Amino acid sequence: MPRFADALSKPGLGAIAEVKRRSPSAGDLRPDADPARLAAQFASAGAAAVSVLVDERFGGTIDDLRAARAATDAPLLGKGFFSTEEHLRELKEAGADAVLLLLRDLDDATCARLLAYTHELGLDALVEAHDADELQRAMALDAPIVGINARDLETFAIDRRTQLQLVARAPKDRVVIAESGVHTRAQGAAAELAGADAILVGSALMKAPDPAAKLRDLLRRPLVKVCGLTRQEDVDAAVEAGADLLGFIHVEASPRQSDTVLDVPETRLAVSVFVEETRETPADLIQFYPDRGAGVRGREALLLRDGVQVGTLLDQPWDEHDALHWSRAAEAKGRIMLAGGLGPENVRDAIAAVRPWAVDASSSLESKPGVKDHARVRAYVEAAHA
């Protein structure tokens, strides 16, 4: 497998960090961007690959790709509007490991010819789709790497919901990249849970005061969940503190019962919590305890996206303590959300012991059942992110 595809196929969510000076939709982003310096910084910050815009509409040239190649060994994606074998040869000679092929601009015969030529050159091709028809075309062309762009290139509008639906529909034997529309960890996690192997991020990085720090922040794990929310002011405080997931317990027996999913911004993910049976809610995810155990809920919950399990939550016994909880959780396989007695005082130790995908706290962050102590919420999120 060529090294671009190989880098994106590794476990966990990868990122293609993009170097671009301007955008047709947003105008100037970072006119003085140095592709060599940024490419090296992105590679050090954890990028699986670096994308370099070589089109003048984005303020780029082929020399930017050459500069990035001289500065880093990371896999490089040459990005622009390419339609001929000559374009691909020039990108290969400038140091690209992969090239972008836009189905919006290419008919099937041309795309098939260019795909075959990339193989001859030893390049990967990221075949980009914007809608269901283009995704079907990519599959018919047997494209091994498929990018699904949330941005409509005619109107520049972002439609993340449709993007995630298409990501979920893409075959699991392809490398799937979610492109555009990712500005927060939660949005990246949404793409990950839908089935994306990686995200491609450009504007969010270029607008940030420190692009490499922004990339590290987007990729940072564990995600942080604040659960048992019953008041909008507590949701707002958790969001301001930096929580990624906001949980609402729809269980009558719980002292933190909430009838509804309160207002959660699109930069975060809402989670509805159920025991024994579920119902439809506007939440992004469902946390489902199949049984009550010895109390209000059992110890293990399924994390569901559109009815499909995408993770497992491991909890303490209801109103009890299990001294082996962390060690058992550390041995569990798959995407693990750790819960049970976590708070500002111990969440860092829990993360070190378990290395979970996400951490979850509720009662330890309260001044009374269902009412969050905002100072403790801030301290918990800060400790988890430290």
Q: Secondary-structure map with pairings?
A:
Blueprint: H1 3-8, E1 14-19, E2 22-23, E3 27-28, H2 35-44, E4 49-53, H3 62-71, E5 76-79, H4 85-94, E6 98-102, H5 108-121, E7 124-129, H6 132-140, E8 145-149, H7 160-169, E9 175-179, H8 185-194, E10 198-201, H9 203-207, H10 211-219, E11 223-226, H11 232-241, E12 245-249, E13 269-275, E14 285-289, E15 300-305, E16 308-314, H12 325-331, E17 336-338, H13 347-354, E18 358-361, E19 366-368, E20 371-372, H14 374-385
Parallel strand pairs: 1-4, 1-10, 4-5, 5-6, 6-7, 7-8, 8-9, 9-10, 11-12, 11-18, 12-13, 13-14, 16-17, 17-18
Antiparallel strand pairs: 2-3, 14-15, 15-16, 19-20
Helix pairs in contact: 2-3, 4-5, 11-14
Please, could you describe this protein's structure?
- With 386 residues, the protein is of the alpha/beta class.
- The chain folds into 2 domains: 217 residues, TIM Barrel, CATH 3.20.20.70; 163 residues, TIM Barrel, CATH 3.20.20.
- Helices cover 34% and strands 23% of the residues.
- It is built from 14 helices and 20 strands.
- The strands form 4 sheets. An 8-stranded parallel barrel has the order 1-4-5-6-7-8-9-10, surrounded by 7 helices.
- A hairpin with a 3-residue loop joins strand 2 and strand 3.
- Helix 4 packs parallel to helix 5.
- The radius of gyration is 22 Å and the shape is elongated.
- The mean pLDDT is 95.
